[in-house]
């Protein structure tokens, strides 16, 4: 799941995201504008700033809050939910703040690629995950610039455009639209090109787990019984 959030009206974000639980997956929050303070029941806290990433593994359960540390200006970014394999869903919670300067970048041909996870053009990203093999690129393309990325045919992948517009082959992808890529046999990657105003987009891909998914609110498990247990544990205070 991808949540693209953004507003320059403080009334829309000033309430933030008070304490709420998660279990069974990872959240990857990437900030474009604004400042957000993270605190969780495992004792972690950090300040998410423009260009920074917060990577949290909920595992067996965590309660956290994400609250703005600003009174005006724009708040914009993305939160990606990255599933965990069944064997890891009840692992210990984990958290990492990744500062903007700790995210590797590749530049060439009018393109800057910020490599949050995975690798591109020989540049390894700030994060790697063996089970899901995520690729997470923030692409900044000058007018008319092109970019190609090899992808395993069986991986799921999408592109979300947040500035300008681009095309993938003959398909135009305007601002605030997502292009979901085919993962059929013989597919070997993606080639995209920015429009006359340039473009900014995120490219996200990963290895499908091939396991059942049961999701209810902030819990992502494999069965309904596991969802019921997560709700019961939260109500009993066992996620605190």
Low-confidence spans: none
Helical content stands at: under 10%
Described by strand count, sense and barrel closure, the largest sheet is:
8 strands, antiparallel
The SS-based structural class is mainly beta
- What is the fold named in CATH at topology level of the largest domain? Jelly Rolls
Mean pLDDT across all residues, rounded?
96
CATH architecture designation of the largest domain = Sandwich
Question: How is this structure best described in words?
Answer:
By secondary structure, the protein is mainly beta. It has 2 domains: 2-101 and 212-235, Jelly Rolls (Sandwich), CATH 2.60.120; 103-206, Jelly Rolls (Sandwich), CATH 2.60.120.10. Helix content is 7%, strand content 53%. The protein contains 2 helices and 21 strands. It has helices spanning 10-13, 224-235; strands at residues 2-7, 17-22, 25-33, 36-40, 45-48, 53-57, 62-68, 75-83, 94-98, 105-108, 111-117, 119-120, 123-124, 135-141, 146-150, 156-168, 171-173, 177-180, 189-206, 214-216, 219-221. The strands form 5 sheets. Strands 10, 11, 14, 15, 16, 17, 18 and 19 form an 8-stranded antiparallel β-sheet that branches. A 5-stranded antiparallel β-sheet has the order 1-8-3-6-9. Strand 12 (119-120) and strand 13 form a beta hairpin. The longest helix is centred in the last third of the chain and has 12 residues, at 224-235. 34% of the residues are buried. The mean pLDDT is 96.
